[in-house]
Automatic annotation (TrEMBL):
Lineage start: Bacteria, Pseudomonadati, Bacteroidota, Flavobacteriia, Flavobacteriales
Tree of life domain: Bacteria
Protein purpose: Catalyzes the transfer of a methyl group from 5-methyltetrahydrofolate to homocysteine resulting in methionine formation.
Organism of this sequence: Tenacibaculum gallaicum
UniProt-annotated binding residues for L-methionine: 442-444, 495, 610
Protein name as annotated: 5-methyltetrahydropteroyltriglutamate--homocysteine methyltransferase
One family name in Pfam for this protein: Meth_synt_1
Domain Cobalamin-independent methionine synthase MetE C-terminal/archaeal: 437-759
Length: 765
């Protein structure tokens, strides 16, 4: 029996990599210093794994920005627009690499970055490879081999982690028409072979190919490509040992394909799909070993040893222990580094958790326990694990019967407005009295340096709560007055009291806690600290009423209440694994519902419930969509349907495709939906038009991701475009998203122009 993990976090337990990269980018440190930080992190990670007793230690799981971009550089899939950058950066491969990740704006060049998108259903973003019809690949970067050699010098015969060829192609995007990216497989293969040859020459024994697509819906062509590629690789390397990993889903209908691949070890994710174990054990060919992904790489809960040992036992009974690997379910990239750094977490909660470093120990203990160790310390650790698991099952911190009962008692009426939209629309018109093409914003206004420094001072204690509130109130007042002055119709308070749209609510909801250093890489040097939903969620006290009410008291215009929706709170947190996600989501939905009805009671007649993450929560396999959409939509409706007809519910979603989920968006039945639209030149609106979407829509008329100020004319044109497909009586005018990352001067100019564009549109109408 062997132990391994699929990858380790590379940011460093104090975010050393983030700091080093950002300093290098800003020109404050040298390339040498950055490289040294990188090397130190790798060494530290290898050492940590050695000490924990991991047998097969990964390398090439480190990355200065993103592992997919690393692969792109390795195989020389460098888009042509970087040719000139490559000349300028010819003495530093890493500079070209960063230019591809972040764009290049110097030496009179202005080259855009490569596109970024989410890594499957995680919050990690990878850089999307760009593919062209007659693309040539050639070995460009030696990173993979260099990292292997680096480990070897420290006495570690590491297992290089390489994105499998088929998954690498499937992760990319065809940038011209008339070909299928899988057609490139045979052209890419020689570069993979070259890399493997060099690794073999350097003494590599094990290679891990990550093939997450093996657990997704595959077409025939992809299946054939898998067989072709792995057969070719095997022919060239009869002696290298290959582990092919699947994760985030079960192999399901691809199991027979996986079984036929000429590899040594197949890795399966038993956290996401425990059910697959029986089928895999029944069908795995005798010449293959099985890697049991049993320690959750994506969540922070302590492993339940008793349960895991039963699964391991089942597998060893069938295959014999020498054909078994104990592993993390996926790379530990998605888990925070080290629980021991958390000094102020509640001790009861802390004993239920394991971060990356602790997960290493879990993997290693599971092996020893399943081999029947008699070592006292290990047996003690097992007893402690049992105690922690038992305490979590019954803890009063987690379980609140009134919350459970309330969820059980949810009835159909709770997710229905009193009347249909057509009736509500009339009631709302009467109360709200808004013009045609009403203007609004998405919620946040610029979080200036001052605003952020007040929050920091407040958290440190150098501002007391009265002083802090006073400053925020002044900022809110300024924002309300300014919105009034430029003639916006529906105002917002600006969200100055919030650092983050999920964290703000998480901090106030019961059943949710926060770490101090639980950073997880989101993309490049950006890290996030997801809240931990550990228990039954409820709302001990109103969360936003104070600020909305205050803002409303300052003006005769309507001020829109601003909330984050239950699906988004769920999606951007570490979620408890002891009950279905849908149950947790409904608990959050009830808490938000309480807030919505309190806002209504406080005189707020327009309430926005943001759900930017609803689409990214879609299961990886289509077969799971229906069920997810059912509970996700229901959760939104539970949160939003407790109000009168005349109270207007808004929702907001960021850049996403709507075509295949438009019916579900319509089922959410928000009175108004604002969507990000300008980057697609209103194209995203077509889904709503084709569907004849009945409720009101605010397609974003300008991109808030860039400091650029849009002209009145371009926004008028976009509105005109919108009006061609959506009746004017249904249209709102707003930016793409919140303005918190923008500066005031850009914001002022842009919104002023937006209001003029709306006026022009209504005059023309
Ligand atoms: N109301 C939020 C804001 O304006 C919405 C943010 C988002 O959609 N990501 O900041
Ligand atoms: Zn948004």
């Amino acid at each position: 029996m062997q132990t391994h993990i699929l990858g380790y976090p590379r940011i460093g337990s104090n975010r050393e990599l983030k700091k080093a990269c950002e300093q290098y980018w800003s020109g404050k440190t040298s390339l040498q210093e950055l490289l040294e930080t990188g090397r130190n992190i790798c060494q530290e990670n290898w050492k940590t794994q050695q000490e924990a007793g991991i047998d097969l230690i990964p390398c090439n799981d480190f990355s200065y920005y993103d592992q997919v971009l690393d692969m792109t550089l390795s195989v020389g899939a460098i888009p042509k627009r970087y040719n000139e950058v490559a000349l300028k950066t010819s003495n530093s491969e890493l500079d070209l690499y960063f230019a591809m990740a972040r764009g290049y704006q110097k030496d009179e060049l202005d080259i855009t970055a490569m596109e970024m998108t989410k890594w499957f259903d995680t919050n990690y973003h990878y850089i999307v490879p760009e593919f062209y019809k007659n693309q040539e690949f050639k070995l460009f970067s030696n990173k993979i081999v260099n990292e292997f050699v680096g480990a070897k010098q420290l006495g570690v015969n590491a297992k290089p982690v390489i994105i499998g060829l088929v998954s690498y192609l499937l992760l990319g995007k065809e940038k011209e028409e008339g070909f299928d990216k899988l057609d490139l497989a045979s052209k890419l293969l020689p570069v993979y072979i070259e890399i493997l040859q060099e690794l073999q020459a350097q003494g590599a024994e094990w290679i891990q190919f990550d093939e997450p697509f093996l657990a997704l819906d595959l077409n025939e062509k992809a299946k054939e490509t898998y067989q072709f590629i792995y057969n070719e690789i095997r022919k060239k390397f009869p002696k290298l040992k290959f582990i092919v990993t699947s994760y985030f889903e079960g192999l399901k209908d691809n199991l027979s394909l996986a079984n036929t691949l000429p590899i040594d070890t197949l890795h399966i994710d038993l956290v996401r799909c425990e059910d697959q174990l029986d089928d895999v054990l029944d069908t795995l060919p005798e010449n293959k070993s099985l890697s049991l992904g049993i320690v959750d790489g994506r969540n922070i809960w302590k492993n339940d040893f008793e349960k895991s040992l039963q699964l391991i036992q089942k597998a060893t009974d069938k295959l014999g222990s020498d054909r078994i690997f104990i592993a993390s379910s996926c790379s530990l990239l998605h888990a925070p580094c080290d629980l021991e750094l958390e000094t102020s977490l509640d001790n009861d909660i802390k004993q239920w958790l394991a971060f990356a470093k602790q997960k290493l120990t879990e993997v290693s203990l599971l092996k020893k326990l399943s081999e029947g160790t008699t070592d006292k310390a290990i047996l003690n650790a097992f007893e402690e694990n049992k105690k922690a698991i038992a305490s979590r099952k019954s803890s009063a911190l987690i379980h609140h019967n009134d919350v459970k009962q309330r969820v059980d008692a949810i009835a159909e009426v709770d997710s229905q407005r009193k009347n249909a939209f057509s009736t509500r629309k009339k009631a709302q018109e009467k109360v709200l009295n808004l013009p045609l093409f009403p203007t609004t914003t998405i919620g946040s206004f610029p979080q200036t340096k001052e605003v952020r420094s007040w929050r920091a001072q407040f958290k440190k204690g150098s501002l007391n709560s009265e002083e802090y509130k006073y400053l925020l109130k002044k900022e809110t007042q300024k924002t309300i007055q300014w919105q009034e002055k430029i003639g916006l119709d529906v105002l917002v308070h600006g969200e100055y009291e919030r650092n983050d749209m999920v964290e703000y609510f998480g901090e106030q909801l019961a059943g949710v806690t926060f770490t101090k250093k639980g950073w997880v890489q989101s993309y490049g040097s950006r890290c996030v600290k997801p809240p931990i939903i550990y228990g039954d969620v409820y709302r001990p006290h109103p969360m936003t009423v104070y600020w909305s009410q205050y803002a409303q008291s300052l003006t005769n215009n309507w001020v829109k209440g601003m909330l984050t929706g239950p699906v988004t709170i769920l999606q951007w947190s570490f979620v408890r694994d002891d009950q279905p996600r849908s149950t947790t989501c409904k608990q959050i939905a009830l808490a938000i519902r309480d807030e919505v009805t309190d806002l209504e009671k406080a005189g707020i007649r327009i309430i926005q419930i943001d759900e930017p993450a609803i689409r990214e929560g879609l299961p990886l396999r289509k077969s799971g969509w229906k069920n997810y959409l059912k509970w996700a939509v229901e959760a939104f409706k539970i949160s939003s349907c407790g109000v009168d007809d005349a109270t207007q519910i808004h929702t907001h979603m960021c850049y996403s495709e709507f075509n295949d989920i438009i019916q579900n968006i319509a089922d959410m039945d928000a009175d108004v939906i604002t969507i990000e639209c300008s980057r697609s030149q209103m194209e995203l609106l077509n889904a709503f038009a084709d569907f004849k979407y009945p409720n009101e829509i605010g397609p974003g008329v300008y991109d808030i991701h860039s400091p650029r100020v849009p002209s009145i004319q371009e926004m008028t044109e976009l509105l005109h475009k919108a009006q061609k497909v959506i009746p004017a009586s249904q249209l709102w005018v707003n930016p793409d998203c919140g303005l918190k990352t923008r500066h005031w001067d850009e914001t002022e100019k842009a919104l002023l122009a937006m209001v003029s564009a709306a006026k022009e549109a209504s005059l023309r109408y």
